[in-house]
């Protein structure tokens, strides 16, 4: 390997500085001293410019009947902005991916390895990072999040309920937004485990649930790819797993490395809660749990 080649699997995953917030590139160091507020904020972006691309997406979501009102902006990251909204089925979390030019897709190849792109023209466009190639990456990223959400939710895993689909025809119409049921309430949205204040007993429970959640993913043949307290929510003493577009299967040649990275990042990010474990022991525990019983599948009502 040349000195100029970046190998995500070779990263020092024991260093907690690499951990980042959700909807950002997993391998980019976390900036210190700039903690963004988590909570409700005014919708300046959606009210200042009625012709913005974000407004067009929100209008389309309303026209499709998925959203009736945007309540507040919850969080803004490099890849997406999350909004608290209302819809015909209650409170909604709208995850709106940013314009292609604002996203880097940096190091996304490690997650896409093993995927087959049938058309040579499409493969060249993606590899060359052309506008058309980035558009295909963006559409694939959004569709993958919906597809994974549906599979995991129906399998009984602790993930947000997707609110559009399950047929791709339905959820591709919301591109570049992903709609899911809000975890928490409009006034008290569930915090990330990285931001939650836990008692020792709650920390042990959250740790146990997080290990079991990773084991459930493994049983289905997945490595999360960014599994840490930054992508786990804490609500009513229950852990909910989020952020799924980068899920990898065993067809990915980096699968074992991604799984080991998830184990290490979970151990590293839980240190603030007084849980001390190492990546290899976490991985062994997860593999053992994956041989146990699966959660009860959810029934998808018509």
Please explain how this structure is put together:
By secondary structure, this protein is an alpha+beta fold. It has a single domain, classed as Orthogonal Bundle (Transferase(Phosphotransferase), domain 1). The chain has nine helices and eight strands. It has helices at residues 44-48, 53-63, 109-112, 120-127, 131-154, 168-171, 200-219, 255-269, 279-290, and strands spanning 69-76, 80-87, 90-97, 177-181, 222-223, 232-235, 238-241, 248-249. Strands 1-2-3-4 form a four-stranded antiparallel beta sheet. The chain has a two-stranded antiparallel ribbon with strand order 5-8. The longest helix is centred in the middle third of the chain and has 24 residues, at 131-154.
Task: Please tag this protein with its features.
302 residues, alpha+beta, Transferase(Phosphotransferase), domain 1, four-stranded antiparallel β-sheet, two-stranded antiparallel sheet, 9 helices
The 3D shape can be described as globular
- The number of helical runs is 9
> How many beta-strand runs?
8
Strand order, sheet with most strands: 1-2-3-4
Quickly give the CATH architecture. Answer: Orthogonal Bundle
> Could you list the spans in which at least 5 consecutive residues all have pLDDT below 50?
1-42, 111-119
Please indicate the percent range of residues in DSSP E strands (runs of 2 or more).
Answer: 5-15%
Sketch the major β-sheet: 4 strands, antiparallel
What's the gyration radius in Å? 19 Å
**CATH third-level topology:** Transferase(Phosphotransferase), domain 1
N-to-C SSE string, H for helix and E for strand: HHEEEHHHHEHEEEEHH
């Amino acid at each position: 390997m040349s000195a100029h080649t970046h190998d995500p699997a070779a990263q020092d995953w024991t260093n907690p500085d690499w951990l980042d917030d959700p909807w950002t590139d997993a391998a980019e160091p976390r900036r210190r001293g700039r903690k963004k507020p988590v909570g409700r904020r005014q919708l300046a972006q959606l009210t200042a410019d009625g012709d913005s691309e974000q407004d067009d997406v929100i209008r389309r979501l309303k026209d499709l009947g998925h959203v009736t009102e945007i309540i507040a902006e919850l969080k803004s990251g490099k890849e997406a902005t999350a909004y608290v909204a209302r819809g015909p089925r209650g409170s909604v979390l709208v995850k709106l991916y940013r314009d292609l030019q604002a996203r880097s897709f940096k190091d996304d190849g490690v997650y896409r390895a093993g995927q087959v792109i049938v058309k040579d023209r499409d493969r060249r466009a993606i590899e060359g990072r052309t506008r058309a190639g980035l558009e295909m990456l963006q559409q694939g990223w959004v569709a993958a999040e919906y597809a994974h959400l549906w599979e995991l939710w129906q399998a009984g895993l602790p993930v947000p309920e997707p609110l559009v689909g399950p047929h791709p025809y339905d959820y591709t119409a919301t591109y570049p937004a992903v709609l899911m049921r809000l975890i928490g309430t409009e006034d008290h949205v569930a915090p990330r485990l990285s931001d939650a204040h836990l008692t020792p007993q709650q920390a042990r429970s959250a740790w146990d649930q997080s290990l079991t959640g990773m084991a459930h993913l493994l049983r289905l043949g997945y490595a999360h790819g960014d599994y840490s307290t930054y992508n786990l929510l804490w609500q009513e003493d229950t852990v909910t797993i989020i952020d799924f577009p980068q899920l990898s299967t065993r067809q990915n040649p980096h699968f074992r490395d991604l799984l080991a990275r998830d184990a290490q990042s979970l151990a590293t990010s839980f240190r603030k809660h007084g849980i001390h474990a190492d990546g290899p022991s976490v991985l062994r525990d997860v593999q053992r749990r994956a041989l146990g019983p699966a959660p009860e599948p959810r029934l998808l009502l018509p």
